[in-house]
Specification:
globular, 2 domains, Methylamine Dehydrogenase, Chain H, 544 residues, 6-stranded mixed sheet, Immunoglobulin-like, 1% helix, mainly beta, 45% strand
Amino acid sequence: MPADNRRTFLKTVGVTAGALSLTGTGVVLAQQDEESDDTDSADSDDSSNDTQIKTTAWSTHRGGAGRTGSTTEDGPGPDVTTDWSTALNGSMWTNEPVIVDGVLYLAVATTSDESETTGYIVAYDLETGEEKWRRDDIPEPKTPTVGDGMVFFATVTRDYPSNDDGGLFGLDAETGETVWHDVGPYEWTNPVLVDGRLFVVQPPQQYVLELDPETGERKHTEIDQKIATEPSYEDGTLFFRQGVAMDSDDWSKTWEISDENFDFRLDAVNNGYVYGIRDGQYGIAVQARSAEDASVEWAMRPGVNDDDYGRLAVTDDYVFFSSSNDDDPDQIDAFDAKTGELVWSNEYEMEITSDLTVSNGTLYVSGRTGTESKTGDAVVLALDAATNDERWRYTFGSTDSEDVGPAASTSVVADGKLYTSTFPAGTDTDARYVKDSTFYALGADDGSDDDSDDKSPEACIEATPSLDSRDLEAGDTVHLETCSTCYTDEGPTHEWDTDGDGDYDETGHSVDVAVPRCGSLKVTLRVTDADGDSDTERVEISAS
């Protein structure tokens, strides 16, 4: 089956939609890549039944030195609630939270244009949420790398030459004070810290550097005209996204992937494999190569357009590939990490706006509800990594914006909680830094205050038939009912805006609305308790 016909086939077979409106549950459709010089696959026997890797902290961009987007930390259980949240007055849409030794580090941009970049970096006590320190006197920071009592990060500079405020920083992790600062060029990549060695790339000069983490002293410089991205690392070898591997001790080039017929993007390294995306004459292929010599172990084509492919998340057991398409629902493919066999593939009635994260057998998908407009709500899905069964979903609420709604950025889990931020995806660059950006810490509700009068209301809507149904037609009646917890006939009150005009025109625990003949209809539920505290939830109804 040609790759570009795969989505059409998924729709044609008519697999019954589930809770997520999935249209391909368990359908094995990815093909072995015809262009691959595939060698014998690695032994598929694996004694581990869990999705495991070695990283327990999230210490740098994509979690650890392998940049896999995976951790062994536990996330929250099914009864998810907001533990705390804070307005960022900026945005983290390109950055990830970093968590090390009970401390949460955030890098936030407050403005970003051609003439100015500003931001701050802040550290919080993970248990109490108390701010430990904040640095507002630096340009826009990238995701920090934390270890050995230090915080290392590069800044973003949109213009050249850079000023002396930016560069590469080493801060004291306890106080936030500057230990060293290298102005260097106007651009640096995210560094990686391994066994007391700090590696970083200067893209303008395409230098690979090793710096002393304690002093910032440049210990080694290697020039390579093809290297211009952040390094990943495993077993003494540095790997670069352009498809280059370098020995970190003698600085010799171990291998380089070079073929004029395709481009290769290396995303992650784990357990002796490098994983990446190959874009060639047969379309996009997810590839696993030997970290030792770059020989292809397997290559599979998920069947997406070459302009719409996303990034990988990798564990010992699985490789997850997310892709988006303006004309079709967003998609995730899960492959066996050692053999390339397609484990499952599904499409989602949501926008997947950020990188995937995996922790202890759970796959976290961040994005925005709906696919027809940009006015949905930020949402995080928690899926069973092996089966794609939904474990829970959390929607962050609606926005007052008529133009664009918030989306959830990359999620990070630690100590039973999930940490993420929201941002207005789909807007111009400047707007992403000033609108609708909030940071959230999500935990599991232990039910200890279920009988308390202090419990805040929570709005929730259940639709019959499901709004994900492919069979909704104009004029059909949809029954909407509250699925909010902790309510009785005496309260809290339930109000409905059934026509999307901002006025609540119905009350009660349920309403019936008609599917519109043109466009979509937004229906909002507001739940208000006796203390005046309220919460809202909104759904969007349209014909299939």
